[in-house]
Design brief:
By secondary structure, the chain is an alpha/beta fold. Helix content is 35%, strand content 15%. It is built from 14 helices and 15 strands. The strands form three sheets. A seven-stranded parallel β-sheet has the order 3-2-1-4-5-6-7, with helices on both faces. A six-stranded parallel β-sheet has the order 12-10-8-13-14-15, with helices on both faces. A two-stranded parallel ribbon has the order 9-11. Helix 9 links the parallel strand 13 and strand 14. The longest helix has 17 residues, at 86-102.
Length: 382
């Protein structure tokens, strides 16, 4: 029987689950896959050979946690390892029992430095999903240095400059992994979302990993370009002092974000991975504004996008009409659609799955079957 792969999926946002599903469908039909996550309702359709095992959250308290041991310091090799949390014990026990029973070929970790190190401690090879950010701390280094391989769901040109040759040699880059990068035809997309063919449309897009952009600066932006139609999708933080003109509308969560991106003349968006891949695939002018994330993930990704010449970047939403006009003008002037499209692989899930299979084969080569001594004896006894 083919040894299974394990897969830990962080449940904040949907990008982690979408990457997992894409890989699950691309793996060979005889490769079992067991997925561990604190939520089982975030996954797209999975193949029959994939099983989701729900575990307690590793960072959200349930109310049964002890608080009397908070004075014990956390070692630098760990990020979130509070003492006295029964949910963490149960989650880790569930995975270690599976390690012992299933004898997996690989454990893919997207993402947790603790789970990656747990696999290594349990003598299970792990693959760490590589993310942008300031991750030179001891916890990330332990997870990366101990990995059999690293899987980056973005193009190699978006690598951070401090990632050295030893690290890059173990990395599979798969731009567009887990994202539906098929682009609707612009005019049809506009018809579906109710935007006229001759309107200038500016899309403001926030993903599911945070609280979204603030309302007040968006109102300033819409006033600075009054002939354009501004549409926001995703969360928007309401500001009591915001004064909005009539050319901006908030549509909240939508199921057809690809239509909005395809229809836009300019996209203003944060730099979450799914958002990045959708905009790059659509090759739209992009004003990228990173949101706060742990380890400055979105800010470092924004720097990589700027260095690659595929987005105009600002550290925050422009704070005046003049700043808005300058940022929009720069985003339109520096637009390089061919360069953006080059960031997306033709078949990223297939490439990632093939790399995983090759890695597993290298880790677990077939054991030669001993020859029958009677059959090979040139002088068999009679």
């Amino acid at each position: 029987m083919t040894r299974p792969f394990g897969y830990f999926v962080h449940h904040q946002g949907r990008g982690h689950a979408e990457r997992c599903a894409a890989i699950a469908h691309a793996l060979p039909v005889d490769r079992p896959l067991t997925i561990f996550s604190a939520r089982d309702d975030i996954f797209p359709t999975l193949p029959a050979r994939a099983t989701v095992v729900r575990i307690p959250s590793l960072f959200e308290p349930s109310g049964n946690e002890a608080t009397t041991a908070d004075w014990v310091p956390t070692p630098s090799t760990l990020h979130c390892a509070p003492l006295g949390w029964p949910g963490i014990r149960m989650a880790m026990a569930t995975m270690t029992r599976w390690f012992a029973d299933a004898d997996p070929a690989l454990m893919i970790c997207d993402v947790s430095a603790e789970v990656a190190q747990l696999a290594r401690i349990c003598s299970v090879p792990h693959v760490k999903i590589l993310q942008h950010g300031d991750r030179s701390d001891a916890g990330h280094r332990a997870a990366y240095d101990g990995a059999a391989g690293l899987l980056a769901p973005f193009h190699a040109d978006l690598a951070q400059p401090e990632w050295d040759g030893a690290m890059l040699s173990r990395t599979c880059f798969a731009g567009g992994l887990g994202v539906d990068t098929r682009i609707p035809e612009r005019e049809l997309a506009r018809q579906r979302i109710g935007v006229a063919a001759d309107e200038e449309m500016i899309l403001v897009m926030a993903g599911g990993g945070g609280s979204g952009f603030a309302q007040a600066p968006l109102g300033v932006g819409a006033r600075s370009r009054p002939a354009a139609r501004w549409i926001t999708i995703g969360p928007v933080v309401r500001d009591w002092h915001a004064t909005e003109p009539a050319n901006i509308e908030h549509r909240g969560w939508v199921d057809d974000a690809a239509d909005y991106v395809a229809a836009a003349d300019l996209v203003i968006a944060s730099t979450g991975n799914t958002t990045c891949q959708q905009i790059l695939a659509a090759a739209r002018p992009w004003l990228a504004v990173p949101e706060w994330r742990y380890f400055d993930e979105q800010h470092r990704k924004a720097q990589a996008l700027a260095a690659a010449g595929v987005a105009c970047v600002r550290p925050h939403l422009p704070s005046s009409a003049d700043a808005w006009m300058q940022a929009i003008g720069e985003a339109l002037a520096m637009h390089r659609p061919a360069r953006q499209r080059a960031m997306i692989a033709d078949a990223p899930a297939t490439e990632a799955a093939l790399w995983l299979e090759e890695l597993a084969a290298r880790l677990w080569p077939p054991i030669p079957v001993a020859a029958d001594p009677v059959a090979t004896d040139p002088f068999p006894s009679i």
